[in-house]
Design brief:
Layout (H helix, E strand, L loop, with lengths): L1 E7 L7 H9 L4 E6 L8 H9 L5 E4 L9 H13 L3 E4 L10 H34 L12 H12 L4 H8 L3 H5 L2
Parallel strand pairs: 1-2, 1-3, 3-4
């Protein structure tokens, strides 16, 4: 069975052209929605994927109707494959997992996306290390100022209970105990 998926971003746009193309491609049922492609939790797409079974094909008019990023596309295609189904884009003939060439192209795309993630991670780690070398602190801002920390430590050394110290600064006793 061929299942179609159509999407437009705004209420002002129409789904008519996508419906016509999907029906002409043999789609027996078309799931459609008006939602931004940047939204990954799309109800009609989830329903379309949920209806897929072994041997079915999910068809879209163009890839940008399905996903906005490589990672999103690969996640959707993995969900389709998990159902034992295939995928085809009418305008992007290379994106057709019903053919060996299409499978190859998607595999290459997945490999490039993985490589890109590794490069991004490496650049991010290098940037973080340079920032730390410059003295940049990461994480949440401290709850207490340096002056408050010094005062809390002095009060703790004087024997004042941690809960009393914490209450006076509006923090928990655990925060004080970590000083």
């Amino acid at each position: 069975m061929i299942i179609g998926y159509a999407r437009v971003s705004t209420d002002g746009q129409t789904l008519d052209a996508q419906y016509a193309s999907l029906r002409a491609a043999g789609a027996e049922h078309v799931y459609a929605e008006k939602v931004s492609g940047a939204v990954t939790d799309r109800k009609a797409l989830a329903k379309a994927i949920a209806t897929l079974s072994v041997g079915d094909v999910l068809v879209v008019t163009r890839l940008d109707r399905l996903a906005r990023s490589t990672r999103d596309l690969l996640n959707i295609l993995a969900a389709v494959a998990d159902r034992g189904a295939k995928f085809r884009s009418l305008a992007d003939t290379w994106a057709d997992t019903t053919t060996p060439h299409g499978e190859l192209m998607i595999t290459i795309l997945a490999g490039l996306a993985t490589f890109e993630r590794h490069l991004i991670r490496a650049r991010t780690d290098e940037g973080r290390q340079r920032a730390q070398a410059r003295g940049v602190r990461f994480g949440r801002k401290p709850k207490l100022t340096q002056f408050q920390i010094a005062e809390a430590i002095a009060r703790r050394e004087a024997g004042e209970p941690l809960t009393d110290i914490g209450r006076s600064f509006g923090v928990s006793h655990s925060t004080i105990s970590r000083l």
